[in-house]
From TrEMBL:
It comes from the Eukaryota. Its EC number is 4.2.99.8. The lineage of its organism: Eukaryota, Viridiplantae, Streptophyta, Embryophyta, Tracheophyta. It is an enzyme of class 4 (lyase). This is Cysteine synthase isozyme.
Length: 30
């Protein structure tokens, strides 16, 4: 129960970070 919640939060954070990195790659040309 708690473990599943922690995993879900971890995955959500990882996806958010990956999305931001991908956005920065597309948005910035440096």
């Amino acid at each position: 129960t708690m473990l599943k919640y922690k995993i879900a939060v971890f995955v959500q954070k990882a996806n958010d970070i990956e999305a931001k990195l991908n956005y920065n790659k597309i948005d910035g040309s440096d």
